Amino acid sequence: METTMRTCDRGSGSKLKLTYLPLAVACGTLPIAVWAEPPASEAVTAPVASATGDPIEIVTITAQRRREPAREVPLSVDVVKGEALERGGYQSLGDLAALLPGVNLNQAGGATGQSQITMRGVTTGSQVGATVSMYIDDVPFGSSSAYAGGGSSALDLGLFDLANVEVLRGPQGTLYGAGAMGGLIKYAAVEPDTGEFSVTTTGELSRKQGGESGHVLRAVVNTPLKPGVAALRATLYQRADGGFIRDLNHPGGASDGSTTSGGRLALLLTPNKDLSLRVTALSQRQRRDGAAAEDMNLATMQPVDGPDTMRRFIAEPVDVGNDLVSLAVKADLKWATLDVISGWQRSTNHGRMDPSAFYVPLLGAAGINAAGYALDYSFYNRKLTQEVRLTSPRSKIFEWLAGAFYASEEGSKNQHMDPLNAARQPVAPLLLDATFPSTFREAALFGTGTYYTSQQTDLSLGVRRSQNRQHLDNQLSGLFAPASQPAVDSSEGVTTWLLTARWRPAARQALYARVASGYRPGGPLPVIRNPLTGEPLNKPAFRSDSLWSYELGWKGDLLPNLLASELALYQINWKNMQVFSGGGGFGGIGNAGSARSRGLEWTLRSAPISGWRLSSALSVIDAKLLDASPDLGGKAGERLPDTARVSTALQADREFQLGGRDAYVGATARYTGERFNTFSAAPGIPLYRMPGYATFDVRGGIEFEQFALSLFIRNLGDRRGQTSADTTLSSLGGPGRINLIAPRTFGLQLSKSFK
């Protein structure tokens, strides 16, 4: 009997889901505090007075590689301000995704550093590679390859000392390259201030209902080195998140606590008004004791041992490290602006998984008896990136942008699986020891041009040509390991396109149409040959998959300076979907048929009364397969996994004076509709329905001369929302692993600042 394992990335972020299939081991919207902006022709340095006398904040973004008001950008984009994140106690990628309807974070069975983020339904559940790109300022972070954890290692950066987070929906392949099929998330840090010295320290205490306490410690120092010319900004932080899930096999506290520690150092030099240089160094370490996953009986749909409990033979810790050093040079050449961005990054991910619920009964029937099993895994990726681009000055006739990009990755995926005795010590036989070194190279040229046919209309065209090369090796041993195969290589060229048309029928009104494409790189596959005939049993490579997005949108004021709205309708056609495949006595990565996603995104923002800010966001997504896929186990017309058809959010904030001091209160309500974790006949992965849920958060604070005191309550109603589900270990009767939102959480924050 041939026995191998499936240990490939899953869209949920549980990188190492194990299913008894002959597999190739090789495969291995609520925009907070964002209000109407003026057209580009208006100044963007001062607020615009509203009908109530309150200023309506102007929000500028860099979504199209130049600073411009968000309402001028012909695509669906959210801007979440760093200040708003701090006020609400939102500090992780999961917190950010929960604020944005239609943006989904899946951590089924996983933990910190094991997650997959998706937008607009662009997911098959089992993700070969990322469909949303992650950026820190102008540097892409994470692997573009399918072999270095790129499909399940979305960057979970601590949300501290950020100016804002830009969330671009829809494919961004022309300006941002590989992996930005569903959208892009860009973390924008606060820049050093060359004019003023300041220090801010923050302490926070929190506690989960029925769980454990947590804390945040943070310090930010900004010091001018030469006034108006040079400044240094340093940020240090630690966040300890108290858990609430208890492992009944390991008493002594919650099993899902986590600690995130990091720092950022930024140096800004502006020797003259035409030149600036920014050097940034960032380092972050995350550790989680285990996943916030409850064991669920799939037959009764009830917790196996009661709410917020699990049973694991071994603990499942995860350690993640992320490091980045970048240099950004901006020079005004008068006829164009030159940007040169260099980046060096390193990502590590080490963890342990307990697959005992599946392998104890499976291998017991084959005569291998063990008390349990342990799968140790790691991902490593080192990446160099270089981008050079020229951007024309603002023009009433024609604007252009042209650039070149290069990335070089060295990655590795490692897995080691042992049987364990009752003392949880490894015993013979060794089941698997596998290492997969890989490299990925990308070189691209890109450009866009915008022609203003009149003061009211313009057309834009963009194109990017990418050339990708990959190399994959393998070293395999153990009972489950196939014979090591020769190293393999692949190369491909991909072109992505962008076309937009925009019409401004009146002041502060804009209609746009957008057509854009995106892709994920293909890659090489070890060739398995028939031992009798020598004929290959699989293709030597899997192809890149691609999609085209067609979007119609409107941005404008319903009531001038009082009520603003944005509406986007889109259809996404996705073909050659990358999937995990099986056949011919092995498994690996292949390409399936097509899928389609249609949707609507609608936001409203208002400042109806002095001091009040109101906003709402709605996402409706209809994402489904167009072609049946045996590898996915999906039928034509079946919903794509992990995506709610309807999600919405409402927010209200009020700023006022209390005893002569600035104060605020606010509330956020969110609803996420039902989702399914996989397809109806997914091989070895039982279908599970996650019901819809609603949550309600409140916050408030007051500022003194040097102190600020704030309070927040997350999930005020203590709802048991299910965010993702992992059933890959459940086909032989094991429980499903259901990830839950945190229970009611109280937080108190105290900040001290001086200048």
TrEMBL record:
Annotated keywords: Cell outer membrane, Ion transport, Iron, Iron transport, Membrane, Receptor, TonB box, Transmembrane, Transmembrane beta strand, Transport
UniProt subcellular location: Cell outer membrane
What's a single GO CC term here?
cell outer membrane
Q: Which domain of life is it from?
A: Bacteria
- Report the InterPro entries cross-referenced here: Beta-barrel_TonB (IPR000531), Beta-barrel_TonB_sf (IPR036942), Plug_dom (IPR012910), TonB-dep_rcpt-like (IPR039426)
Tell me the ranges covered by the TonB-dependent receptor plug domain, including all copies. Answer: 70-183
Q: Which Pfam families does the annotation name?
A: Plug, TonB_dep_Rec_b-barrel
* GO process annotations (BP): iron ion transport
The residue ranges of the TonB-dependent receptor-like beta-barrel domain are: 305-716
Quote the PROSITE patterns the UniProt record gives. Answer: TONB_DEPENDENT_REC_3
Instruction: Decide whether keyword Membrane is in the record.
Output: yes
Q: Which Gene3D superfamilies match?
A: TonB-dependent receptor, beta-barrel domain
What membrane topology does the annotation report for this chain? Answer: Multi-pass membrane protein
Protein family (similarity comment): Belongs to the TonB-dependent receptor family.
Tell me the protein's name: TonB-dependent receptor
- Which organism's genome codes for this protein? Rugamonas rivuli
